[in-house]
Amino acid sequence: MLELLITLVSILIFVYGLVMLSRLFSAQLSQKQKKWWLIAHIIFVIIYFAGVLGALLLTSMAANLITENAQINAAHLFARYFDWFLVIPGALGCMITGIWISVRTNWGLTRYYWIIVKTLGNIAAILFGSTFMRHWLEETIALSSAGQIHLVENTTYLHSHQMLMIGTIISLSILLFLLLTSYLKPWGKRALPVKSQSLNLP
To answer: In the Cβ-directed half-sphere of 33, how many Cα atoms lie within 13 Å?
Structure first.
């Protein structure tokens, strides 16, 4: 619980820092700048999806298609590498580019419901991955590298493996929901107070 709270506070401080940094620039992004930031955002989304899909494939193979301890351990180790080099950079990149585009354009960070949902969804995905998912992944790695005989019959390992599978599917579902939200842009614009509109708050 403490780890979750620390991660949440760190993310909120980081988001606040990005918003404050954006206010140092008086002009909004030009169309060309916006296009390049959107390209970067899409690239990070692809990296994010690739990492989660790769981790899902490797996790599903462990203890299902492969049964030898060494191979199971290798699958979980590669899933961790996917997390380190694809999922984490992709998630952070999506959050940074998404927030930067929002605060440096007419979209704003709180003017549209779909942007609010995307931002909160991305934060929730990062929190879920950095706490629960990381715990289950590290536990499966530790158990599969302990040299136990008949690992696929170990109830502790099977429980962690099952939770890791469910967690990865949940993460993928969140990403798909956020992708659809970004594409469809539902729910419309918030009715901001007149004072907020006159101040042009993000």
So the answer is: 10
- Length of the chain (residues): 202
Model pLDDT for residues 28-73, shown as the tens digit of each residue: 999 999 999 999 999 999 999 999 999 999 999 987 888 888 899 9
State CA 154 to chain mean position distance: 30
Give the H/E segment covering residue 68: none
Q: Could you tell me the pTM of the whole model?
A: 0.89
Distances (CA, A) of 166 to 50, 64, 95, 150, 170: 17, 15, 24, 23, 6
Could you tell me the two tokens for 133? 């998912």
Please give the structure tokens belonging to residue 114.
């779909």
CA 138, 54, 45, 39 torsion-angle sign = positive
CA distances for 66 relative to 43, 61, 62, angstroms: 32, 6, 6
How far apart, in whole angstroms, are the C-alpha atoms of residue 15 and residue 184?
A: 24
- Measured between alpha carbons, how far is residue 30 from residues 44, 101, 105 in Å? 21, 11, 9
Structure tokens at 50: 């690739």
Indicate the DSSP class of residue 193.
Answer: -
